[in-house]
Design goal:
Strand 8 and strand 9 form a beta hairpin. This protein folds into two domains: about 220 residues, no CATH class; about 45 residues, Type 1 dockerin domain. The two termini are about 35 Å apart. By secondary structure, it is of the alpha+beta class. It has six helices and 20 strands.
Length: about 280
């Protein structure tokens, strides 16, 4: 589906204020970050860290004031801002001095859009993901596509929120978890593109489905070892996870500490936690 068709479908479907805002975003009337509430200098947690190491762009996760390096799987909730199918999260942040001041940094999609089927991801969808910033946009359908680039700040840093908008050529997009594969490139020939990385978008499916899809991507695409023993999800298995597990010992419905999902927190889960003890991703 072409962008023009997307816009037309969107226009026809825009009965709400949300739709009108989405339309304004699509046609570039409003920069995405102007629509979002809040101070753009706050709330960077959850943004994608963009750095350069040994001549390559690398990604990480901005976590409060810290950077978790090497992360290649990110999460986003479509519709969270009130506009169905839309999100401008995660944002993108490079610290001052990362790039030369005249450089531009951009996004390509080396794979088509896919959707979680409970056991992997299916392509060949009716849905498209439109990615835009002001008047720039590209559409991820069933095939790889080149995107657009933005100028870095005069200090060589970057902080932008680009828009992601899920639409369908045949009515409303399906509820589900959608996978977008991206790479970052730089117009400075001394800086090579990033490895591929992924954003796992939840379009009104359950948190459990979203989480399962994220874990699958981490294990099967990003090659990360997932720590089941990391009960509190802080990327280390330690005494806090053990205490959290002991605190819910016994029969337990959908507990994080029920590592093997058998409806009870018991010795099997404890052994699995102990086997994972230490740092992990
Ligand atoms: Ca932990
Ligand atoms: Ca169990």
């Amino acid at each position: 589906m072409s962008l023009l068709q997307s816009r037309t479908n969107l226009f026809i479907g825009s009965r709400s204020l949300g739709g009108a805002v989405a339309l304004a975003l699509m046609v570039g009337v409003l920069p995405a970050n102007q629509v979002m509430a809040g101070d753009p200098h706050e709330g960077h947690a959850g943004d994608v860290f963009v750095g350069v190491e040994e001549g390559h762009i690398v990604t990480g996760l901005i976590d409060e004031d810290d950077v978790e390096p090497g992360m290649r799987v990110f999460e986003s909730e479509l519709g969270e801002s009130g506009v169905p199918g839309f999100s401008d999260e995660p944002g993108w942040e490079a610290f001052p001095g990362t790039f030369s001041p005249n450089a531009r940094v951009g996004w390509n999609a080396p794979a088509g859009l896919t959707r979680w089927n409970g056991d992997g991801f299916d392509g060949g969808l009716d849905e498209d993901m439109t990615i835009n910033y002001a008047s720039l946009s590209f559409v991820i359908g069933n095939d790889p596509v080149d995107g657009f680039d933005l100028a870095v700040q005069p200090d060589g840093g970057l902080h932008r929120h680009i828009g992601f908008f899920l639409s369908s050529g045949s009515g409303d997009p399906h509820v589900g978890v959608y996978l977008v594969e991206l790479e970052l490139y730089c117009t400075d020939s001394a800086v090579e593109s990033s490895e591929h990385f992924w954003i796992v978008f939840n379009n009104e499916a359950s948190e459990d489905d979203h989480e399962a899809a994220v874990e699958w991507v981490e294990e099967h695409l990003a090659g990360e070892e997932h720590c089941h023993g990391d009960v509190n999800d802080d990327h280390v298995v330690d005494i806090n996870d053990l205490l959290a597990m002991l605190g819910v010992w016994g029969p337990c419905d959908e507990c994080d500490a029920d590592l093997d999902d058998n409806g009870a927190v018991d010795i099997e889960d404890l052994l699995e936690l102990l086997a994972d003890f230490g740092d992990c991703h």
